[in-house]
Amino acid sequence: SWRFFFLSFRKIYTILKNSLLIIQTKSKKTLARPNVKNIVLVEGVRTPFLLSGTTYSDLMPHDLARAALQGLLHRTAIPKDVVDYIIYGTVIQEVKTSNVAREAALGAGFSDKIPSHTVTMACISSNQAMTSAVGLIAAGQCDAVVAGGVEFMSDVPIRHSRKMRKTMLSLNKAKTLGQRLSLLGSIRLAHLSPELPAVAEFSTSETMGHSADRLAAAFGVSRVEQDEFALRSHSLAKKAQDAGLLQDVISFKVPGRDIVSQDNGIRPSSMEQMAKLKPAFIKPHGTVTAANSSFLTDGASAVLIMSEEKALAMGYKPKAYLRDFVYVSQDPKDQLLLGPTYGTPKVLERAGLTMSDIDVFEFHEAFAGQIMANLKAMDSDWFAQTYMGRKSKVGTPPMDKFNLWGGSLSLGHPFGATGCRLVTTVAHRLQKEGGQYGLVAACAAGGQVSDTHVQHSLVVPAMIAFCTYAKHLYEL
Amino acid sequence: MMMVPPRTHVSYELKDDVAVIRLNDPTSKVNTLSVQMQAELTEVMGEVWSNGAVKSAVFISTKPGCFIAGADINMIQACKSSEEVTSLSREGQKMFEKIEKSPIPIVAAINGSCLGGGLEFAIACQYRVATKSRKTILGTPEVMLGLLPGAGGTQRLPKMVGLPGAFDMMLTGRNIRADKAKKMGLVHQLVDPLGPGLKPAEERTIEYLEEVAVGVAKGIANKKVSLTKEKGFMQKLQDTVMGLGPVRKQIYKTVSDKVQKQTKGLYPAPVKIIESIQAGVEQGGEAGYVAEATNFGKLAMTSESRALIGLYQGQVICKKNHYGTPEKEVKKLAILGAGLMGAGIAQVSVDKGLTTILKDTAVDGISRGEQQVYKGLNDKVKKKALTSFARDTILSNLSAQLDYSSFKSADMVIEAVFEDINIKHKVLKEVEAVIPPHCIFASNTSALPIKDIAAASKRPEKVIGMHYFSPVDKMQLLEIITTDKTSKDTTASAVSVGLKQGKIIIVVGDGPGFYTTRCLAPMLAEAVRVLQEGVGPKRLDALTTSFGFPVGAATLADEVGIDVAAHVAEDLGKAFGSRFGGGNVDVLKTMVEKGFKGRKSGKGCYIYGKGKKDKSVNPDAEEILKKYKLAAHPAISTDSDIQYRLVSRFVNEAVLCLQENILRNPVEGDIGAVFGLGFPPCLGGPFRFVDSFGAERLVGIMKRFEDIYGNQFTPCQLLLDHAKNPSKKFHK
Question: I want to staple B293 with a disulfide (CB 3.0 to 4.6 A). Which of A385, B89, B142, B612 is the partner?
C-alpha cells in the first residue's frame, strides 16, 4: 500500500541556486507536505556528450535538443499532445534559434500547440528548466512538462565589432549612393576585428578557470589532490560506461556521420601523465590544468516531469519524486564557485534531513579544484561560522556515495544540459543502489578552455542542490 | 654576561632549504627601514648566509597591506649635517649591495606598499613576486619629500626599467600598481589575491604569496627558474638606442629642460636625481653611488625638503578624526544644488559607498549634474582604474531628484546652492521641515559666515560649514567651519564624512571668509592693483608661478570665477574694511557686467579656446584695466617687490587667522594654504615660510610697502612678536 504525499512547493528562492528533493515512499519518513502536489520524474535521457569540435561539429544546437526530445518520446512513448509545456535551458545562444526550446520541439514533431520557452542561468540552466516545470505543475497550470538543456560549443556566435555593426546598420538607412559610399569609406582595419563571446565574467572580468584556481588556492587544495579527483572521476565514468550503467544515454544518428552512442571525453589517465600538464589559467604557479577541468562539450538532455496523479493514471512507473530545491547566490568574485557549500545545508534543513540521511550525492564537477574547495569549506567550522552564520560546519558528503558514475570532469559538461543529467543520474543510482534520498548540487560555473581556442565564461555564481529518490514501489 | 635582546621586527624559519625571513614592526601600522629593522635584518642575513644548509631565501612582510613603506623619516630628520645623512645613505647602499651580491638567491615577496627604501630593498633582491592586490603599490616617492632614492635606487632602477622608465618613476614619484610593475620589468611574477577560504582572505593571501615565493626560490636555487628574462623586440630596440652616447645625452638634456620648466628651479631634488643617475650611467657604479649619497645628504638639509616633509607629516595629521567617533554614522547624504560643486561632492561620495541624493530645482540642473558624476567615473573606466561594472554599481548609489522625498531618512544634508544668504535661509528652512532630528545641515559656502546661515535654524548645533574646493574630485582639501554653537558630535560627523570622501581636513573657526578665502582675498585684491598698475595678466602669472604658485594669480582669478572673486572681495571688504582694499572692486564688477566671468564663461583675464593650453589675453579686459589705471610706485614695483606684495598679504592674513583663533594651529594653516589655495609647496605653507624666511625680514619688507599703501601691509601682532624674538617659531 502506499500513501499520497503532498509536495510542498514554496516560493522559488531568489536567483542563483537550487536544490530539489526526490524521495522514496517506502522510507521511514516522508518529505511530502500537506496540500502540495506530488511531482515525479518519469524519465530522463541525454545525447552522448561529445568533446566539441568532434562528431557533432556540423550540427546546430536545436538539432541536439531535437535528438534528446525524440529520445525521450521514444523511451516514454508519451503521446505528443499530452505534454502541456516544454522548457529548455541553454547558455551560449545561437541567435537564429534564440528560443531553442520551440525550434527543437517543432523539429521533434511535438504539436505546434504546445508552448515552449528557453531559460538561461549559466551552468544551472537546465536545473532552472526543471524547477520551472515543477512550478508549473505545482501551480496547477500543467500536468506534464518536458524540461531539458542543450549546449553546442562547436560553433559559437562570433560577432562583427561594435563599430562595424554600427556602420552596417547605418548603411541600411543610407538613402543615396553618396551616403553609402561615405559610410563604406569610413570602415577601417579596426572595424574588422571580430568580437568573440566574452572570455570573462561580466561583473568581475575574471575567467571561470582563473576563479577556480584562486578558489583552490584559497582553500589550500593542492595540484595532486585535484589530479587525483579528476582521475577518480574518469575512472568511475569508465567503469560505469563499461558496465552499461549510463542508461540515460540514447543513440543518435548524426546526419552524414555514424551513429553516436557513447560519451567520448572519458579518458582515464595516470597521475604521472596528468602531472606533466602546465597550468591553464594562472601561470606559472597555478594548479588548474586542462586535465583537472571539465572540457568544452556538445550535448543535450531532456526529462519528463509530471504530477504523480497524471503519471499513474497514464500507467507510468515514475523514477523519483522531485521534492524540494533551493537557489542561493553569493559574491561573484571570491565565492563564485562555492554554491554547493551554501545550498546543501539549506535544502537539507528545508526537507528536515541531515547529511547522513542522503544515499546518493551528485555534485556538478566544474573543476576538480572547485569540488575539493567546496568539500573543504563544508568541513570547516571557521568557514561555516564566518561566512554562513552557522554554529558549526556543514559536513561533507561521504565519498562512497559521491558521483560514483563519473561527473562533469569526465562525462563532459554541456553547460545548459548538465542539470538534467545530474537529476536523472541520481534517480538511476538510487534505483541501482537501493537508496532512498538523493541530493544534487551544482554551481553555475562556466566553461573552460581546453588547450585550444575560445573560452566562454558563464555568468552566474550559483548552485543547485536537488534531492532525488527512486520509487521502487511503482515496480511492484 | 651580555644579554642579547630578542628580535622583535625580523624573524625567520627554514622551509626545507629556503630561509623565509618575515618582517613586521610591532610598534607601527607600517614597516619602515628603521634603525631597529636594519639592525635585525643585518643580523638575520648574517645567520642565513653562514648557514650552509640554506640554499635560497624569501623576504616577506607579515603586516597586512604593507611590505616596507619606506625609510624612517625621523632617522633623516635627526641628522644635523649633510655628511651625517650621506653616511646613512652609504650604509644603506652597502646593506643592499650585500643583498644584491648574495651567494644564495633572494626572492622579495611583495604584498602592499613597497615604497622608497622598501622598493630599493626589493630591487636589490634577485627576484620579485608581488600580489595583484590594489594595495600593492611600488614607487619611489622621495622626490615628493624633496629627496632622492638614496639607497642605490638611482643606480639600480635605470638598469631594471630603462632610462626613461627610471626618470619617470623617480621624477614623478608616482605609485605603480603590480600589473604595471610587471610590464615594466620591476617585478617578475604576479600572484592573485585570494578570497576567503579556511582563513581570512588577507592572511591566506600572504601565506599563498609565501608558498609561491618559496617555490620560486627553490626553482632559482636548482636552476629551474631563470633569472634572465627573454627581452622583447621593443626592449632590445630600446636598449640598443640607449646604448648610444649622444642619444643618452639628448635624453638628459630633454629631461633637465622639462624639469627646469616645471619646477622653475624652485625644487632641487629632481636636478639631483638626474645628476645621480647620469653619474652612474656615464661614469660607472662607484661614481654613481657616491653621487647618490652626496646628493642625498645635500638634499636632506634643504629648506625645500623640510617644507615638503612638513607637508607630508601635516597631511597625515589632517587625515585623522580628532573629534571622536560620531554617534551616528552618516550613510545617506543629500546634496542641494547639482552644480559643479554639488555634483563634485556627489561624485566623491557615491564612489565611497555613501547613498547620495542630488537635488536641484530644474531638470536641466540634475541632468547636467548626473552627467558630471557619470563622466568623472567613466574617465576612470577609460584609464582602467575602474571597471564599467564597478562604475554602474557606484552610480546605483546616486539618486537625482527635484523634490525633498526621502530626505526624511537623510543623515546629512550639504547645501551647494547660490551664495546668497536669503537663498541659504530658504533652503535651510525647507530642509529642516523634512529631515529627521539627527540630520546634520552643512553649508558649502566659501565666504558667508556659518553663524549667519545658522541664524535661520531651529537647531544651530547641527549646522556646520563644509567648504569644498573646485574641482571637488581633484582638490584634496576640505575646510570645515564650526560656530560657537556647533556640537562636537556634528563636527565629528562632518570630519568623518570628509575623511570617507578622501579629503585632507582642516577645522577652522567661523568668520567672514573663514581661513582659506580670507587669505586669498587680500592677495587677489593686490593682484587687481598690480594689474591696474599696468602689469599684464601674463606677467602677473609669470611672477606668481616663478614664486612657486602652481597657478598664476590672473589664471587663478579666472578659474575661481571673476564673479565669485568680485562677490568675495565686496563681502570681505565690508567685513574687514580698508585692510582688504588694494585693487578697485569695480574692475571685477565691470568685467562681470561684460560677461567676463572667467574660464566658465570662456572669457576673463584671458580668452579660452577649445584646447587646455589655448588661451590669449582678453583685450577687452585690458581695456577695462586701462580705464582704472593706477600709477605704479617705482620704489616698490620691481618683480621681487610685486611678488612679496602678493605673498606678504597672504601670509600676514594667515598669521592673523592664527592670532584670532580662526586657525587652531600652524599645521592646519600650512595644509589649508597649500592644498586649498596652491601656496608654494616648496615653501611648505605660510607659517613654515615665516619660519624659514624670517619674520623680521618679512616685517621689514612689509614696512616698506606699508609706508606707501598703508594698513593693507601692516604686520599683525603675532608676526611682530615673531619678528622681535627670532627664537619664536611656528614649527619646532
Answer: B89
Give the Cα separation of B228 and B237 in Å (integer).
17
Say whether domain B332-501 belongs to CATH 3.40.50.720: yes
| Interface check B201 vs A, CB under 8 A | yes
Inter-chain residue contact B197 with A383, CB threshold 8 Å: yes
Topology of B10-225+232-301 in CATH? 2-enoyl-CoA Hydratase; Chain A, domain 1 (3.90.226)
ipTM of the complex: 0.87
Place of cell 568573440: A196
CB contact under 8 A, B197 and A205: no
Determine whether B479 is an active site residue.
Answer: yes
- The position carrying cell 650611467 is B281
Instruction: Check: pTM over 0.80? Answer yes or no.
Output: yes
Q: What is the mean pLDDT of chain B?
A: 94
Burial-class residue B294 by CB neighbours within 10 Å (0-12, 13-18, 19+): buried
From the list B196, B212, B387, the residue facing A334 with the nearest CB is B196
Q: Does B387 touch chain A (CB under 8 A)?
A: yes
B227 touches chain A (CB under 8 A): no
Catalytic annotation, pick one of A142, A420, A443, A467: A443
> Is A467 among the catalytic positions?
no
Per-domain boundaries in chain B:
10-225+232-301, 332-501, 516-724
**Which chain B residues contact residue A204 at CB under 8 A?**
387, 389
Query: Could you tell me if B389 lies within 8 Å of chain A, comparing CB atoms?
Result: yes
Q: What is the DSSP string of A411-471?
A: H-B-GGGHHHHHHHHHHHHHHHHT-S-EEEEEE-------SSS---------EEEEEEEE-
Question: Chain A within 8 Å of B215 (Cβ-Cβ)?
Answer: yes
B516-724: which CATH topology? N-(1-d-carboxylethyl)-l-norvaline Dehydrogenase; domain 2 (1.10.1040)
H/E stretch holding B62: none
B11: phi then psi, degrees, rounded to nearest 5: -135, 160
The C-alpha cell that represents B403 in the structure block: 523634490
Size of interface A-B (CB pairs under 8 A): 59
DSSP B450: H
Instruction: Please report, for residues A19, A68, A125, B146, B527, the alpha-carbon distance to residue A130 in angstroms, rounded to integers and kept in the order given.
Output: 11, 15, 9, 68, 78
From B40, B210, B275, B479, the catalytic residue: B479
Q: Answer whether the bond into residue B726 is a cis peptide, omega within 30°.
A: no
Set of chain A residues whose Cβ sits within 8 Å of the Cβ of B215: 285
Could you read off the pLDDT of B200-219 as tens digits, one per residue? 999 999 999 999 999 999 99
Mean pLDDT for A370-388 is: 95
B387·A205 Cβ contact <8 A: yes
Q: Which residue has 626589493 as its cell numbers?
A: B122
